[in-house]
């Protein structure tokens, strides 16, 4: 049974409280919060005030995904805002080990995200320090994109690396997840499904979450 982490990037920001209440009453496990700076990715999303308000609206895990440059400057502020898991991008962190140590020292779980073009074996030397690997299955920056099929091979390869070392590291898939492809994604070895449009644009988001949990 996968962990389901609906992405609030697809929520209705005029009725954010209503969407948070819906997720609280659903079987969603985590709230996935995408932070974009307009530099690392070609889009700007939201920052600390939104996360602070979401934190007050739920007791569920706040899974914060930083698509930003120089994340080390803001890690403490994201902890204060309410992040339980803080994920940084491999491609944005020339001193990745230092980033992970900083996140853990602040009492959060540490995640690393990989863009579609970045091979999973780039994490080989540091996998033991990572609580969660977020494989981007679309190019980061915008919701509603098509799932990149090659991601299935990356999930299998990463699952093999984790199993070989007997690590508890979770595999999270972010982008283009639908009710049609989610079973194959879980079967390949994914633990966490980030679903944005699939949940929030469906006629019955609670039922859609149920269907993802049932895989």
From TrEMBL:
Protein keywords? Carbohydrate metabolism, Cobalt, Isomerase, Manganese, Metal-binding, Zinc
Q: Which GO terms describe its molecular function?
A: D-ribulose-phosphate 3-epimerase activity; metal ion binding
Q: How is the cofactor bound?
A: Binds 1 divalent metal cation per subunit.
Annotated substrate binding sites: 7, 65, 141-144, 174-176
Per the record, GO CC terms?
Answer: cytoplasm
HAMAP family, per this entry? RPE (MF_02227)
- The name this protein goes by in its record: Ribulose-phosphate 3-epimerase
């Amino acid at each position: 049974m996968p962990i389901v982490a609906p992405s609030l990037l697809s929520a209705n920001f005029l009725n954010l409280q209503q969407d948070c209440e819906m997720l609280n009453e659903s079987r969603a496990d985590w709230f996935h919060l995408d932070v974009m700076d307009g530099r690392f990715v070609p889009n700007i999303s939201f920052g600390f005030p939104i996360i602070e308000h979401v934190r007050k609206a739920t007791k569920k895990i706040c899974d914060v995904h930083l698509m930003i440059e120089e994340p080390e400057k803001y890690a403490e502020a994201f902890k204060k805002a309410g992040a339980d898991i803080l994920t940084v991008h491999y491609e944005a962190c020339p001193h990745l080990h230092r980033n992970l140590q900083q996140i853990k020292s602040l009492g959060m779980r540490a995640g690393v995200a990989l863009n579609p073009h970045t091979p999973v074996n780039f994490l080989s030397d540091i996998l033991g320090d990572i609580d969660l690997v977020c494989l981007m299955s679309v190019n980061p920056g915008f919701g509603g994109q098509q799932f990149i099929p090659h991601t299935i091979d990356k999930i299998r390869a990463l699952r093999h690396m984790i199993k070989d070392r007997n690590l508890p590291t979770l595999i999270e898939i972010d982008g283009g997840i639908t009710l049609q492809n989610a079973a194959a994604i879980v079967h390949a070895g994914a633990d966490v499904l980030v679903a944005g449009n699939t949940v929030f644009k469906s006629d019955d988001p609670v039922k859609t979450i149920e269907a993802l949990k049932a895989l």
